[in-house]
Specification:
The structure is a homodimer.
Chain A: H1 10-17, H2 21-28, H3 36-49, H4 55-62, E1 67-72, H5 78-93, E2 97-102, H6 107-118, E3 124-127, H7 135-142, E4 148-151, E5 160-162, H8 166-179, E6 185-188, H9 195-210, E7 220-221, H10 227-233, E8 246-249, H11 252-264, E9 274-276, H12 283-286, E10 293-295, H13 298-314, E11 322-323, E12 328-330
Parallel strand pairs in A: 1-2, 1-3, 3-4, 4-5, 5-11, 6-7, 6-8, 8-9
Antiparallel strand pairs in A: 10-12
The first copy, chain A, binds a DNA duplex through residues 7, 9-11, 19-23, 25-26, 28-29, 33-35, 38, 53-63.
DNA sequence: CTGAAAGCGCTTACAG
DNA sequence: CTGAAAGCGCTTACAG
């Protein structure tokens, strides 16, 4: 019987049990209406024929969806990989399936990916926008039927938004370096046109301001938020004297790249230069030296994002909310160094 | 009009254009049968009403599926994250959507995840089996309707299988260390009951054998394939004299953990101990020192896995194939050290 | 080149 | 407690 190529359907089971399809449907969804003996018979037959529920057909009829689309830049970034893991975990627990999409940081590709995912009728969307995303174009694609949660970067428009507390995080890191005695502190990495980078710089500047330190233009070094680019840009920190003695990095990838860049110049983070990161990706704890960083717990943020979008599905009327989890500083060896001028 | 809550359907467009649903359907799928003027009218109306195609309904009618399920252990592992990125990339290019599932290395959870994903009617499945997976149970769940590609670990059963050339990779790494003059070479990390670990040990042993080196039992150190566990187990390499001067590690995570463990003991990979990894995760190139490792190109493997399953969908009759991409050794600084006895 | 009818696998009132 | 009928949004022969 299972040798047959075709799918086993409700109708097959109904015929075999000499019942109507309606009754089988009730059994499948655990309705208390159906007689215990009947239920047992049906369940045996379901197992015997290897029936598998066609959720798509049921969803079509019921006009519901059990999928949520997750659109991110790229899983290669551990931050997003952790985030995605958290999203998937929480969605699975709630009985939803995750439709994956990645944009590779391209706004064009993002349009294509969203449009393709929409055809699969997701109940909701979680989007970490690619750089250069245009809110109007996205809205035009989505219409107003599909709720979306925007994560990590601002996108304007009337969507739910889950943000990291970038200002506070960068401020904490900067204050920590100031407390160690540093006065010449760089902000290293990231692109100025990314909202998260702007916010982190703002926190950095605020901390300097509170300590009556005037930030120097050469303390701001831009670079793509990757390890490799950061390593390449390391030299830019030391072109002028007096050079900074510490750097608040845009994120952990950049910080790890900077530490590698320092090493190739015979310097060592935590020994003659202080470095802080942002994200607390798993590598941060095991790098050499371990990296002082701002914990944002991407996996927990992923779970949170999933829960927010699920909540929005239940209550479509509730106003779009802005949730900002508090950032927390993890002090490790990479920043545990006092500047030369202040030591001894 | 778009203010209405309901979905815009074919019927809405047909009514607005005073045509039948069949004609609209033809337009949607780009049939050449339909009159150019009619097509233009329809397309304008589709745009005007913000129509979005319901692929699920079409698939139901056509008895096809445009989804492929991807089931892995955990996206936290960069190896799997890269693999998943490759799979998603290739599937998207082919017009498929990726249904994500993760098992957290639990065979129980794997059953649950597979069973849930099956209800979403995937055209095929890509599975990297959790440790302790049981082929019979999986087969019982899947039946014979849904083709599956097994990746990375053996699972038995009649499925397509995409394997890394573990034996060859480990052999290459070991031969490289021998060529540097090492004679006491450990195999570090992994669990003996994982097929990939067994295969890598086999390659290691073969290389030793060819060099007439008798492997010592204390050169085999097991540990969970994570950075943290590897760092914790580092001491096990040095409990007896003479200690190994080099280690072939189960994978990159383990190798990075070992390098961290060495650092805390005042040793440094590439200076007084040689280390090789396996996988070539992105960190390997930027660790301090950079890690000599076996490139398996997880992203390319992901694309390959996607292409294999898509091919199987086109040709269900072709026999299950075993594809083994050649492993390649990337020599970097972590292994560029000659043992004490051999130097000077 | 376009339309009427049937059907994919399920669920939902409504009867009985 | 169970069944007959209609319908979710689409496609597919078959006519014309």
């Amino acid at each position: 019987m299972p040798a047959s190529r075709g799918r086993v359907t409700l109708t097959d089971i109904a015929r075999a049990c000499d019942l109507s399809r309606a009754t089988i449907s009730l059994v499948l969804r655990g309705s208390p209406l159906v007689n215990a003996e009947t239920r047992a018979r049906v369940e045996a037959e379901l197992k015997r024929q290897g029936y598998v529920y066609h959720r798509g057909a049921a969803n079509l009829r019921r006009k519901v969806s059990s999928a949520v689309a997750l659109v991110i830049n790229d899983l290669s970034n551990p931050f997003f990989a952790e985030f995605a893991a958290g999203v998937d975990e929480a969605l699975a627990d709630a009985g939803y399936v995750t439709l994956l999409g990645s944009t590779g940081e391209s706004a064009e590709r993002q349009q294509a990916v969203l449009s393709s995912l929409l055809e699969h009728d997701p109940a909701g969307i979680i989007l970490s926008p690619a750089e250069g995303s245009d809110a109007a174009r996205v809205r035009n694609l989505l219409g107003t039927r599909t709720p979306m949660l925007v994560f990590n970067r601002e996108l304007g428009g009337e969507w739910d938004y889950l943000a990291l507390d970038n200002v506070r995080g960068a401020r904490l890191a900067t204050e920590h370096l100031i407390a160690q005695g540093h006065r010449r502190i760089a902000f290293f990495g990231g692109h100025q046109d990314s909202s998260s980078c702007r916010q982190r710089r703002e926190g950095y500047r605020a901390a300097l301001h509170d300590a009556s330190i005037a930030p120097q233009p050469q303390w701001l070094v831009e670079c793509a938020p990757t390890r490799l680019e950061a390593a390449r840009q390391t030299g830019a920190l030391f072109v002028r004297d007096p050079a900074p003695t510490a750097a608040v990095c845009y994120n952990d990838a950049v910080a790890l790249g900077l530490m590698a860049g320092l090493a190739t110049r015979g310097r060592r983070a935590g020994q003659d230069f202080a470095v802080t990161g942002f994200d607390d990706i798993p590598e941060a704890a095991v790098s050499a030296p371990p990296l002082t960083t701002v914990a944002v717990e991407p996996r927990a943020r992923g779970r949170q994002a999933a829960e927010l979008i699920l909540q929005r599905l239940r209550d479509p009327q509730s106003p779009a909310m802005l949730t900002i989890p508090p950032a927390r500083l993890l002090v490790r060896a990479s920043s545990q160094v006092v500047p030369d001028g202040a030591s001894a």
